[in-house]
Each structure stands twice: as C-alpha cells, then as structure tokens.
Design brief:
Blueprint: H1 3-7, H2 12-34, H3 38-53, H4 60-71, H5 76-101, H6 122-141, H7 163-182, H8 188-201, H9 223-239, H10 245-273, H11 277-287, H12 292-308, H13 312-332, H14 337-351, H15 354-367, H16 372-383, H17 388-399, H18 406-419, H19 423-436, H20 441-453, H21 457-470, H22 475-487, H23 491-507
C-alpha cells in the first residue's frame, strides 16, 4: 500500500508529515521521562514542521494524548503539558495559513473531475463514502489490485441499500463500539482502531470534501495502526494455538515469514508499474477501466509516445489505442474537455480526418462556446492543410457555432480572396472581421484589396488608409494604395504612396 507514497513525488508530504508527527511523539515521551523543558520547544517545532508538510498532521492533536494515556502511566495533567506545544504550534500554523491564503474557502468546482459527488444525491454520496471506507480496509488486508486512479467512475455510484455500503458501515460502527468499551482499559486493539478512525477521517470526505473519492496514499498514516495491530496480532494468534513454547516460536516465525513474503512480493511487483508515467497510466487504466481521468491520461501518454516514434506501423497502433481511450473517457464523462482536445489531436496525428476533428471541437464548443484554444488549435491545423474548398467548408461549418469570431471571418475572407480569387464572396467575411477587430492591419489591408478587385475605389482607399495608419510604410500596402489613388484620379497621392512603397522596400 505504500508504493504510491514512496514512488510518487506528490506524496512527500505524507512521508514528512508522519515523520515529524512521530518525532514529536517521541520527544514528548522523552520530556515526560526526563522533565527537561527544552524538549517541549523541540516537540512544538517538530509538530509545526509536520503541519507545514501536510495539514493531516492535525489529527495528532488527538492521537498524542491518547497514545500517552495508553502507553504511559503519567498523570493526565502531565500529558496535557506535553500536548501544550502542539496546541501552540497549531495556532501559529493557523495564523500563518490565514496570512498566506486567507480565511475564505473556495467551494469545489461543479465538475466531476474536481467534485466526484456532484451528480449524486446526498444518500448516494454517503453510501459511496462508506464504500470507499470499506475499500481502504480491504486494501490494507489484501492490496490487490492497486491503482493510482480512483476517479469517477472507477468508484461507482453506490445506493444506500447496497451491501457494499452497509457492510463497511457495520464494520466501522463495530470499531466505534469496541473503542468505547475498551479504550479506558488501555486496550491495544481499541487504540489501533481509534488511531485508524481519527487519521482516516480527515481524508474520508465526511468532515469536508477533498475533491477525490479516495487515494492509496491517504492510507499511509492510518496504516501505522494496521501495522501495529498485525505485528502484535500474529503472536497473539499463535499463543492461542495449543502447541508447546518452541512450537509457538516456529509458528510465529512461519506466520510472519508468509505474511511479509506476500506483502513484499506485491510491493516489488507494484514498484515496476511506477517505472515512469507512461508505464503507470497505461497499466493502471486496465484496473481503473471505468475512470474518465484514467482513460484520458493513458490516451495522452500513448499519443505522446506515438509522436516520438519514427515507426509508422507502431505510431498508428499507438494512436488507435489513444483514440480508443479518449473516446472511452468521453463516453464516461461527456464534459471531459481535456479528453476531447486530446481526441482531436490524436485524429490529426492518425489520419488528418478534419471533419472528425471539427466534430470533436464542436462538441467542446457546445460546453465552452468561446474557448480560444479550440479556435487556435483548429486554425493551426488548417494552416497545414492545402485543400482550399474543404477548408472553406470546414470554416463555414464552424462559423455556424459562433459567427462573431474574428479569426473565422478573416480566414474565410482570405480563403476566398487569395485561394479562390473571389473578392465578392470574400467581402462580407472581411467586412465583418474588420468590424470585430478594426485595429488589425491585415484585416484592413485585405478588405481594401477586396474592394479594389471589385473596383470600389473609395471603399478600397478608406480601408487601405486605415491599414497604413495602423502600420505605416508597409511596401505592398502602399503599392495597392497607389493603384487605388490612380483610379480615383489622385496622381499626387499615388506618387506619394509609390514613394512610401519604395522607401519601405529599401528599409526591408
């Protein structure tokens, strides 16, 4: 279960938080043993570092006094003195946190990838939480299969009457009852149950939403209770078996060897999955096959690998897999925008299917009508395409989604003007582009040229002069202006424009 914590750089916070919490607990025990006041400062510093590492460390405000109660014979007042540095550190941390991020809490986005419960009813939400709490216990005992991806809907929506919610509810209630009955007697099992419940509570989605169903790294701190329970439980189990002392020692050794061997094998085999991101996500998507996020990421890494290979057969195979994963992601969650962008890119790399690419982009625009990345990506693809008639058809279809995009209108205008030499068809698009972006040099210049082709000399002069005012001295523009002025019967202006053109050409 600890493979993710060790292999994933994100989980350094878990490692450091537990490390500093245990240091704090150790120093507190030393203080109670030696009564040296400077140790209180050390324990407070240790806990402050734990909180800076990850806020989950705050659970040790309860864990430490319970631990001291269970494992020492100190007076309650002494244990509270040992707790005081932790309280002070917590207050300092809260002041620091407020100074940095303020007190305003930002609600989770109304998006499945950031709020997995967004589409659930309240009963379904808590039934699903109970299911994940059951999974945590199951994975501690039997850590298979493991995955880095518990996004929707690898974790399914659970209804309140589902046994997958009711069984964990019964198990957790049993833990609570056992704690209430046994903790006052300093019972080790009750302590382990309490340790587990307190440390898992903060990542359970019960106290507050965490933006994910669950993650294996969230079990790192709670698993300490499981390790204590397992380490003490196996000898206790052996002691209940009617064999002699020597036989019990052998039995304990065998039980420990078998247990450690099985967990070690799983750990080593799981380490290989974390070799690199490509290996991890293309492996784990087979476990989290119903995860929108997992399918999207696997598809993205497959596409990246396809782009990097020079083998056409391998490239096509990887791209087909990428497309399949991205389509699966979108089928699970139609608003998975990243998957849609990746899908369009994969189609471009695979077969340059521009009609399909446009269909994908129109799907994105149905959710985000003015998304600039869609238009930018589409324009980038079109710049590499040389079929003028097809490009016009594609842009006209895209214009139906948003007729007031400057880039669509200017591209249509230029395709008609330069690609088809059809100034009459270009004119309405260029005129709209000029209205949408009146300070764009190329738009005003192209509109002026279109008017010139149609021999509408006054309009041509007006727009070419606007372009000249935006970017003075451009040679080609002034040559067009000279022609326009000549046709307007203004030879002086024509000569001046030619002079600017010659000067502009010389400057270049």
């Amino acid at each position: 279960m600890h493979t993710e914590v060790v292999a994933n750089i994100k989980s350094r916070d878990e490692l450091l938080a537990l490390l500093f919490c245990l240091i704090t607990l150790y120093i507190s025990l030393k203080f109670l043993e030696k009564r040296k006041k400077h140790l209180l400062l050390v324990s407070g510093a240790g806990f402050f570092l734990a909180l800076l590492s990850k806020e989950n460390a705050a659970t040790f405000l309860l864990i430490q006094p319970v631990t001291l109660f269970i494992f020492t014979r100190n007076k309650t007042s002494d244990n509270l003195i040992a707790l005081l540095p932790l309280v002070v550190s917590s207050l300092l941390f809260l002041l620091l946190r407020q100074a940095v991020v303020g007190t305003t809490t930002t609600p989770l986005a109304n998006d499945l990838m950031n709020n997995p419960f967004v589409a659930m009813s309240v009963p379904q939400k808590y039934a699903t939480i109970l299911y994940t709490l059951g999974l945590y216990v199951k994975l501690l005992l039997f850590p298979h299969p493991l995955t880095c991806d518990y996004y929707p809907y690898h974790i399914p929506v659970i209804n309140p009457g589902d046994l997958r919610a009711l069984i964990p509810l019964a198990a957790y209630l049993a833990m609570v009852v056992y704690i209430l009955m046994k903790i006052r007697h300093k019972n080790l099992v009750a302590y382990c149950f309490l340790f587990f419940l307190v440390t898992i509570s903060i990542v359970s989605n019960i106290l507050f939403p965490i933006g994910a169903f669950m993650n294996e790294r969230f079990l790192f701190i709670p698993s300490l209770a499981f390790c204590i329970l397992l380490g003490s439980g196996l000898p206790a189990l052996a002691n209940r078996i009617p064999v002699n002392t020597g036989g019990k020692k052998i039995l304990v050794a065998v039980l420990m060897a078998v247990t450690l061997s099985l967990y070690a094998y799983k750990t080593i085999s799981r380490n290989a999955d974390w070799y690199d991101s490509y290996t991890l996500f293309t492996t784990d998507v087979k476990v989290s096959s119903n995860s929108a996020k997992g399918n999207e990421i696997a598809g993205e890494y497959l596409m990246d690998k396809a782009k990097a290979t020079g083998d056409k057969t391998l490239k096509d195979s990887l791209l087909r897999q990428s497309i399949a994963y991205q389509r699966k992601a979108v089928s699970i969650y139609p608003k998975q925008i990243i998957a849609l962008f990746n899908l369009a890119s994969a189609y471009y790399e695979y077969n340059r299917n521009y009609d399909t690419i446009l269909a994908v982009y129109k799907t994105i625009l149905a959710y985000l009508p003015n998304n600039p990345q869609v238009y930018g990506s589409f324009n980038s693809f079109m710049n590499k395409y040389d079929n003028t008639d097809h490009k016009i058809a594609l842009y006209r279809e895209l214009q139906q989604v948003n007729a007031d995009r400057w880039d669509i209108n200017i591209n249509l205008g230029l395709l008609y003007l330069n690609g088809k030499l059809d100034a009459a068809s270009a004119l309405p698009y260029l005129a709209r582009a000029a209205k949408l972006n009146p300070v764009d040099f190329d738009t005003q210049k192209s509109l002026g040229i279109a008017y010139g082709f149609l021999q509408q000399w006054k309009e041509a002069a007006l727009n070419l002069e606007k372009a000249e005012s935006i970017s003075p001295g451009e040679a080609d523009l002034n040559r067009h202006l000279a022609i326009v002025y000549q046709n307007l019967g203004e030879p002086v202006k024509a000569r001046e424009a030619l002079a600017r053109a010659d000067k502009g050409k010389t400057q270049k």
